[in-house]
Amino acid sequence: MGKTMKPLLAVLVALAAVALAACSGTAADRTKIRIGEVTRSIFYAPQYVAISQGFFKDEGLDVELTTTAGGDKTMTALLSGAIDVALVGSETSIYVNQQGSGDPVINFAQVTQTDGTFLVSRKKIDKFDWSMLKGSTFLGQRKGGMPQMAGEFTLKKKGIDPQKDLKLIQNVDFANIPAAFASGTGDYVQMFEPQATVIEKEGKGFVIASFGVESGQLPYTVFMSKKSFIDKNSKSIQKFTNAVYKAQRWVAEKPVDDITAALMPFFADTDKEIVKAVVKRYKDQASFATDPIVDEKEWNNLQDVMQAAGELQQRADYGKLVNNTFAQKAIETVKK
Predict the structure, then answer these.
(1) Where do the domains of the chain lie, and which CATH numbers do they carry?
(2) pTM for the whole thing?
(3) 112 near 37, Cβ under 8 Å?
(4) 113 and 225 in contact (C-beta within 8 Å)?
(5) Of 120, 300, 138, which Cα lies nearest the Cα of 216?
(6) Mean pLDDT on 22-43
(7) CA–CA separation, 307 vs 248, rounded Å?
(8) What is the 8-class DSSP label of residue 288?
(9) What strand order describes the sheet that includes 85-88?
């Protein structure tokens, strides 16, 4: 190679590097979005995929993920401005609306479309019937939370009065429910993953039914933000929703092994085979939403569940608390 060509080649390489950096952007170039997730859960697979597969970065966003541990704390963080976007159950936006907030919390991108809990029995049951629960001690979820409401909705649908037909235990903290059941509390328990699969693999219980399947589709976990934030940051919310949709399509199309690999950085302390089993269980029962649209029929089902639990003062206006324009645009514009 001639002497004159070497400097020229060096310049071309440098220019290519600059162009590549411009395409991917540095953290300083990207818009920061602070997400607060209600808990760390395999149930929220599309969110972790959007991070691990670089979909947020591709949209020019730098997301900061915090686990805010509980619906009340998550909503407090959102309302106070400690986070920009919350990943939490849609019922929390309805509770805020019931309190007469002047800055409503808007649901803009759905992530899960069923309840994520399972019915676990202490003993193996070959032919389970819901009537078997009558007269038993049932370890349930926290009153007022979506898992509890979906659980009670299912029990009533199966002809069981949770207050009269069961010895219902609801005073155990969410994080302590698996340990309480493992130590002998309750004949049956309503439990999230991966704890249900862990209990099953340890031989301390058996998954016999899904509350997600029985309670039907509803906007169980949704990305939401204050209306004022969305109004001021509509371009960023659109980019955010685009990334979520890319992740949803990726999860829908990829095999369980690929999804598991994408999730492992977020569940380093969980056995890979457990993660894989949970991903398969949720994927098989279509818990992961395949697009970000918050469907009105599902919204109404959510309010039916809340009403049955006595937690709804009056039905919330779908048009006031749901904004599907970002989801619709994502579906129309994200490349196939």
Answers:
(1) 24-114+218-333 (3.40.190.10), 117-215 (3.40.190.10)
(2) 0.86
(3) no
(4) no
(5) 300
(6) 80
(7) 30
(8) B
(9) 61-67, 31-37, 85-88, 221-226, 105-112
